[in-house]
């Protein structure tokens, strides 16, 4: 098989869209990872499914922005429920995440079955949101992705030091008078947007891989937040391009899972072989210095 | 949400009078009282220890003064104002264990966070802020480690970084939660010199402390807390076997020796 497809405008379009999605996922995944909210990303992406299907059922439209608005609202509701359950009950955060993930995903699958009976369902191609289908990206889709990505990058640039102190030491941030609740909501909203973008390419099941894997990989190579965010964005973009390339080249492979596999492969390599932090070198190192202490 | 104060310029010095006035303060976590009917007053310029057994509400007291915990009853005035308005005059040292020290940041990055409040939104720390942060690091004897990754620090060095970050805040009231926990003797001496320097500069310092032996050595005022405020005042007046027994129960005999 040749490499003629590299010049193909459709291929370039899909590669660009996937790169942008990977970059946004890596940047926001860095904050999710450092705030120990990787699982929240997974719960939110699964929670997006009922929103997508409901948006279709209610409007009958297969318009992508509209479906993604449904996805965002539903993912947001899922995140909110996790927070409420954790604060208002004795259920632990990990259980709350599991609960929200499975209930929302279950409802989403049930609704999907209902939606499939509609004659227009096949056209709407709702199944593609399960595992993603980057190959069907349209020029206006990529334009929308680019606009959203630009907005996300701008906001992170503007609120850089606020997000940094929020991620490192939220109590200190609150004590200095920062509105930590509002910042938390803003950062979560940006993460929901990143997930909504990822859904069409990678799907609800694998979007969290695009969020977490590049960030986990980047952490291995640097000790500065600035570099980690840029590197995670770069590795995410690389996964997007590489995934598109491989799935086109080998053929008949779904793009979404291949992108997720590329991101995971990069993360695995970094976990093993990164200098100092890589498992391959740390067998004889003295170990961490963290210790639990009493609270008064 | 409390009115948002993230001042662009150095706030004016607070007025005269007591630094903290607390009346009938009660804080609950669920149906468990953490602080019960506390009356408390802190005069300006003291170096005060807050002591009490585990679960006495020491951390909660600091967090309530910062306005991070909402009391169910009582009133708090800090520099004569509600806590949320007084934050610009307060520097805070959380417990070392409150953060993940594997966070990708250098020592200087963390100390610079003490300058954020003086910057306002969007603006990045500039040369002046770096200078102030390095000065604060010099005060705790850490300037040579400014560019070290925080995950590579010892416990004592981590505490020094947290204190340096508070120094970089240039505050009038310093609230420190167990800054001596787990530190070596050298660090303890270095930190106590810093605290004495703050007191000499007319600042008020309140320290949650766990080592009763050193209270008379390091501090001039003390608060004995066990959900209720048992006593507070000059160390010479209230750091007595009787009050300690009321705070800790009979175990306080460690001190009568």
TrEMBL record, chain A:
| UniProt keyword list | Cell membrane, Membrane, Transmembrane, Transmembrane helix, Transport
Alphabetical list of CDD domains matching this protein: TM_ABC_iron-siderophores_like
Q: Which residues cross the membrane?
A: 12-34, 64-84, 96-115, 144-160, 167-187, 193-217, 229-250, 256-274
Tagged with keyword Nucleus: no
Q: Which GO terms describe its biological process?
A: cellular response to iron ion; response to zinc ion; transmembrane transport
Q: Which Gene3D superfamilies match?
A: ABC transporter involved in vitamin B12 uptake, BtuC
| Protein origin, superkingdom | Bacteria
What subcellular compartments does it reside in?
Answer: Cell membrane
Q: How does it sit in the membrane?
A: Multi-pass membrane protein
**A GO CC term?**
ATP-binding cassette (ABC) transporter complex
The record's comment on protein family reads: Belongs to the ABC-3 integral membrane protein family.
| PANTHER family linked | ABC-TRANSPORTER METAL-BINDING PROTEIN, METAL TRANSPORT SYSTEM MEMBRANE PROTEIN CT_069-RELATED
Protein's name in the database: Manganese transport system membrane protein MntB
Record organism: Candidatus Thermoflexus japonica
Source species taxonomy: Bacteria, Bacillati, Chloroflexota, Thermoflexia, Thermoflexales
From TrEMBL, chain B:
Annotated InterPro entries: AAA+_ATPase, ABC_transporter-like_ATP-bd, ABC_transporter-like_CS, Metal_Ion_Import_ABC, P-loop_NTPase
Q: Which SMART domains match?
A: AAA
For this UniProt record, give its keywords in alphabetical order, as a comma-separated list: ATP-binding, Hydrolase, Nucleotide-binding, Transport
Q: Which residues form the ABC transporter domain?
A: 20-252
The EC number on file is: 3.6.3.-
Q: Which SUPFAM superfamilies does this entry report, sorted A to Z? A: P-loop containing nucleoside triphosphate hydrolases
Gene Ontology MF terms: ATP binding; ATP hydrolysis activity
Enumerate the PANTHER family for this protein: IRON TRANSPORT SYSTEM ATP-BINDING PROTEIN HI_0361-RELATED, METAL TRANSPORT SYSTEM ATP-BINDING PROTEIN TM_0124-RELATED
**Family listed:** Belongs to the ABC transporter superfamily.
Name the chain's protein: High-affinity zinc uptake system ATP-binding protein ZnuC
């Amino acid at each position: 098989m040749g490499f003629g497809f590299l010049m193909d405008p459709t291929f370039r379009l899909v590669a660009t869209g996937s790169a942008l999605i990977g970059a946004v996922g890596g940047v926001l995944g860095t904050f999710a990872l450092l705030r120990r909210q990787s699982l929240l990303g997974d719960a939110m992406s699964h929670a997006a499914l009922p929103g997508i299907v409901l948006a279709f059922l209610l409007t009958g439209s297969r318009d992508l922005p509209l479906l993604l608005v449904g996805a965002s609202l539903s993912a947001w509701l899922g995140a909110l429920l996790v927070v409420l359950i954790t604060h208002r009950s004795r259920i632990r955060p990990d259980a709350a995440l599991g609960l929200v993930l499975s209930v929302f995903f279950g409802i989403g699958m049930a609704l999907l079955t209902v939606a499939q009976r509609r004659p227009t369902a096949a056209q709407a191609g709702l199944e593609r949101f399960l595992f993603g289908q980057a190959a069907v990206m349209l020029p206006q889709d990529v334009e929308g992705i680019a606009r959203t990505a630009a907005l996300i990058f701008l906001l992170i640039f503007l609120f850089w030091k606020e997000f940094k102190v929020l991620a490192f030491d939220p109590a200190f941030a609150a004590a200095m008078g920062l509105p930590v609740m509002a910042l938390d909501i803003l950062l979560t909203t940006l993460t929901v947007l990143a997930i909504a973008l990822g859904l069409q390419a990678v799907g609800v099941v694998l979007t969290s891989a695009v969020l977490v894997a590049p960030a986990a990989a980047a952490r291995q190579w640097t000790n500065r937040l600035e570099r980690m965010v840029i590197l995670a964005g770069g590795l995410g973009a690389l996964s997007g391009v590489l995934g598109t390339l491989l799935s086109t080249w080998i053929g008949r492979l779904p793009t979404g899972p291949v992108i997720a596999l590329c991101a995971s492969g990069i993360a695995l390599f970094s976990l093993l072989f990164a200098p100092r932090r890589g498992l391959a070198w740390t067998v004889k190192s003295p170990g961490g210095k963290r210790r639990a202490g009493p609270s008064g | 949400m409390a009115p948002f104060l993230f001042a662009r310029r150095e706030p004016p010095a607070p007025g005269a009078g007591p630094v903290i006035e607390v009346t009938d303060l009660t804080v609950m976590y669920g149906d468990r009282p953490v602080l019960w009917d506390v009356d408390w007053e802190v005069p300006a310029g003291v170096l005060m220890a807050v002591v009490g057994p585990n679960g006495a509400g020491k951390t909660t007291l600091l967090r309530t003064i910062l306005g991070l915990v909402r009391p169910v009853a009582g009133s708090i005035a800090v520099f004569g104002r509600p806590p949320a308005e007084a934050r610009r005059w307060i520097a805070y040292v959380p417990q070392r264990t409150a953060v993940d020290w594997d966070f990708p940041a250098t020592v200087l990055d963390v100390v610079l966070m003490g300058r954020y409040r003086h910057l306002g939104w969007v603006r990045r720390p500039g040369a002046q802020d770096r200078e102030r942060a390095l000065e604060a690091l010099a005060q705790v004897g850490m300037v040579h480690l400014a560019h070290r990754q925080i995950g590579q620090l010892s416990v004592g060095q981590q505490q020094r970084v947290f204190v340096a970050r508070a120094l970089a805040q240039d505050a009038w009231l310093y609230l420190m939660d167990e800054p001596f926990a787990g530190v070596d003797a050298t660090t303890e001496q270095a930190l106590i010199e810093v605290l004495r320097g703050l007191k000499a500069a007319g600042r008020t310092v309140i320290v949650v402390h766990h080592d009763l032996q050193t209270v008379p050595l390091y501090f001039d005022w003390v608060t004995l807390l066990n959900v209720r405020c048992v006593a507070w005042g000059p160390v010479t007046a209230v750091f007595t076997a009787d009050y300690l027994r009321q705070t800790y129960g009979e175990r306080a005999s460690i001190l009568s020796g």
